[in-house]
Amino acid sequence: MKKIIVLGSGLVGSVMANDLAENHEVTSVDISNKNLEKIHSDKIKKICADVSEKEVLENLIKDFDLVVGALPGFMGYNIMKRVIEAKKNIVDISFYPEDPFSLDKTAKENNVVAVMDCGVAPGMGNIIFGHHNKTMKITDYECLVGGLPKKREWPFEYQAVFSPIDVIEEYIRPARYVQNNQLVTREALSDTELVDFEKIGTLESWNSDGLRTLIQTMKHVPNMIEKTLRYPGCVEHLRVLRECGYFSYEPIEINGNKIRPIDLTSKLLFPMWEMKEGDEDYTVMRIKIIGDEGGKKVCYTYNLLDKYQDKTISMARTTGYTCTAVANLVIGKKYDTKGISPPEFLGHHFDEINKYLGDRNVIYNAQKQFL
After folding, report:
1. Domains annotated on the chain, with CATH
2. 321: helix, coil or strand?
3. 3-state percent helix, strand, coil for the chain, nearest multiple of 5
4. Average confidence (pLDDT) over 101-107
5. Separation between Cα atoms, residue 155 and residue 190, nearest integer Å
6. What pLDDT, on a 0 to 100 scale, did the predictor assign at position 41?
7. Burial of 56 (C-beta count, 10 Å sphere; 0-12/13-18/19+)
8. Using alpha carbons only, what angle is made at residue 127 by residues 214 and 8, rounded to the nearest 5 degrees?
């Protein structure tokens, strides 16, 4: 039995720990005892510690076969760097803003497998992309994705699985997409469109920076875009907050005290966005891949509509189980490519990962259409 340590025990990290504990010896680490108390399995060892401390992290991971990262994005890059320097393999879901490939040389020198962005999107969407990139000349890739609460409450009709600052980062980080082989950069929340989804209804899509590594690894594809989905109307509220400066990282002085507006905003919004006991959610994703396959123009469409089930939040399931599927491939030495691996590098393992998800009732319905 292999030993795995999971860093972070929030809504997603706890789901991953429980899943991995079915076949491995798992230890879960979090700075919050409240988070650790959500893990009820006797199989999982729990440690309360601050892994942002370099020595603490190094001492914690030294005896483990694999590190799984489920920490907030602002911690993700430095944690991955330190894990690599400690010569430990890592599979990670944190959505950090830094360039992951800056760690590639270090990972190769330390003989480390490091898979990043291993969630739903980025994550499974990239794996699907990599899978089709082997067999067809892709011309167009579009991914529409969002996590939505079943209970719609004014004003945002939104609840967050991830840390508030990570969610807000989506609303302020410039969105990049590729059009006619040219990199286009637009502000986040721009180019809103109404899109209909079966069983859910009309949702609103907007530009977000979800392509990530695909911009570098899939340069031969002329058109690529990822857009985030919310209930209609949510975007307008977010744009008002952003334009008024509530998402700013620049400190302002109030009665002699300096404060970053984003810290105040996240503190105020978290109680409104927090998933509470009994709350249910959906994960909606639609991927379209168009290109030439065997001399014929085809379109592959993947639809995911996942719902809260087995007392587990959908976004935690769809994100977490993708990560644990890959963790099993790495720890079983089925995927052993040294260096930084974005999820599209695992396209040749699509069938195994898709089956793993299907066994946990995360179903991607695929259709092929000749154009």
Report:
1. 3-120+314-359 (3.40.50.720), 124-313+365-370 (3.30.360.10)
2. helix
3. 35, 30, 35
4. 97
5. 19
6. 87
7. middle
8. 90
Mean pLDDT across the stretch 198-202?
A: 92
Query: Residue 173 and residue 98: Cα distance in Å, rounded?
Result: 12
Residue 160: the pLDDT is: 83
**String of b and e for 66-83 (b: at least 16 CB within 10 Å)?**
bbbbbbbbbbbbbbbbbb
N residues, the chain: 371
From the number of C-beta atoms within 10 Å of its C-beta (0-12, 13-18, 19+), residue 21 rates as buried
Q: What confidence score (pLDDT) does residue 275 get?
A: 84
The alpha carbon of 259 is separated from its chain's Cα centroid by a whole number of angstroms, namely: 29
Which pLDDT does position 311 carry in this prediction? 87
pLDDT at 241 over 90: yes
- Joined tokens for residue 2: 């292999």
- pLDDT digits 0-9 by tens, 323-352: 999 999 999 999 999 999 999 999 999 999
> Could you tell me if 203 and 146 are in contact, meaning their C-beta atoms sit under 8 angstroms apart?
yes
One-letter amino acid at 89 equals: N
**Spatial distance between the Cα atoms of 8 and 246, rounded to a whole number of angstroms:** 27
**Res 161 pLDDT > 90:** no
C-alpha–C-alpha distance, residues 188 and 186, integer Å: 6
Residue 329: C-alpha distances to residues 35, 37, 114, 350, 365 (Å): 27, 29, 12, 11, 23
Over residues 128-138, mean pLDDT: 97
pTM, two decimal places? 0.94
Cα separation, 75 vs 56, whole angstroms: 14
Q: What whole-number distance in Å separates Cα of residue 369 and Cα of residue 146?
A: 24
User: In the 8-state DSSP scheme, what is residue 186?
Assistant: E
